[in-house]
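Appendix B. One record, verbatim.
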Amino acid sequence: MLRMADIIAVGTLGDFVVLWGGRTVLDRTAAGRRAIVLFKALLRRPGFRCSAEFLADEFWPDSVGIAARTNVRVRLHELRAIFRRTMAQDALPEPIRLESGMLFIDPVYGPVVDAIQFEREALALLDIGTSNTEFAGKAAALLQYYGGEYLEGDRGEQTVSIRERLARLHRALHLRFARALSAGSKAASALDILSYAFERYAYDEAIAEEFVVRATLLGRRERARLALRQQAISACADASVRSRASALFANVSAARSSASNPASKASSSHKIVPRSI
């Protein structure tokens, strides 16, 4: 009989890990690389299912017919063996099934995948808008949930597409969260969020512009100058962003040459300390 504890939980944001019954089944260090690739391939498909023939063509393009099908079955056997070694629950149904030419993760086990959870909740949160009283708290929790890039290091076309889609949501949440904090009279906290986002996504023009504007409004010219020295802004295609950055640098230089009071000196020594959210 299945229990909630038998649900398979999969971490794909940052470190890859598969848990079954609270125990690690697969991670980056696990043996059976081809078996892990097969499992990841199922994660990327709708319903966690895919034609065995398609997988054979994708991973063993030089094999045909019986040889191709044998490759899939061998890797499936390796994958099942990894799960069984971890849990030793022979009485439970196989979590990875092959029926009528379709390979799939048995839905009775879930699985629960962090990337899917993040995407679903991020879209719902962005829909409700920053005026909602619960937005800031939920955004903070969701940003913390995002542990890193989707299947970091994997280079498959489909993986890269999913990774970029999730990263766009992550960037959008940072912007909305910062605006929500500013609207709630927490401008300094908003700048901290934008500072972190700029460090991570320096190529994003919307984040760069928002950071420049809010840093200027708060009088944190030195803080913005230090971050902008990464030359990310200079690479922006948007001329208006580059123009604002240049003006910001000019203001900082003028302020430095004429500054003689302690407050001015304190301002010029302020450094960015990126924060985890």
